[in-house]
Design goal:
The chain is an alpha+beta fold and 167 residues long. The protein has one domain (2-165): Beta Barrel (Lipocalin). Helices cover 20% and strands 51% of the residues. It has one helix and ten strands; from the N terminus they run H-E-E-E-E-E-E-E-E-E-E. Strands 1-2-3-4-5-6-7-8-9-10 form a ten-stranded antiparallel beta barrel. The longest helix is centred in the N-terminal third of the chain and has 34 residues, at 2-35. The radius of gyration is 19 Å and the shape is globular. The relative contact order is 0.13.
């Protein structure tokens, strides 16, 4: 019986080590994929308004800064970085709060990175308006889609940006 317990413990440890290594590899691959976005992107809404999305690698390659700006909003910033084996982001919202999200590792599609809400600073209540999720869909090297989910008072609204690289 003792032998079986040792073997089962060893097998469980192997699964844990393998899962942790997989998590770290996937987070690093997703971070490297995010780095391919460096440059300026543009999205047009059906009414003709333009949103510009700019990506820059900062802090000696340890972070990616995203700036989203439009005529109505001069700029919101999101910062993407690795936290050990997790790809994280903090969104500095024009609503005055800063939601933090982490990338899900179980995404089936390798051309998508799905960020899910963890917590936020400067948020008095979870009912106050804040970003809840972000899905980034890589269509090809010059086209991507952002799907931002905003929540307020328990109601969720999606904002979709189909963007094209302009430089």
């Amino acid at each position: 019986m003792k032998k079986i317990s040792i073997i089962l413990s060893f097998v469980a440890l192997l699964f844990l080590i393998t899962d942790t290594a997989y998590s770290g590899d996937k987070a690093k691959k997703n971070f490297e994929k995010m780095k391919t976005l460096v440059g300026t992107w543009q999205s047009k809404t059906p009414d003709g308004s333009v949103t510009k999305i700019t990506y820059k690698i900062v802090s000696n390659g340890s972070a990616i800064m995203e700036i989203i700006s439009s005529k109505e909003d001069p700029g919101m910033i999101s910062m993407y970085h690795l936290n050990n084996d997790i790809l994280m982001m903090t969104h500095y919202c024009s609503a005055g709060n800063q939601p933090r999200m982490k990338a899900k590792l179980d995404t089936e599609n390798p051309n998508e990175i799905n960020f899910k809400y963890i917590d936020a600073t400067n948020l008095k209540s979870e009912k106050d308006g804040h970003m809840l999720n972000l899905d980034i869909k890589f269509k090809d090297k010059d086209h991507l889609t952002h799907v931002w989910t905003w929540t307020k008072d328990g109601k969720q609204t999606e904002f979709v940006f189909d963007a094209e690289r302009i430089n």
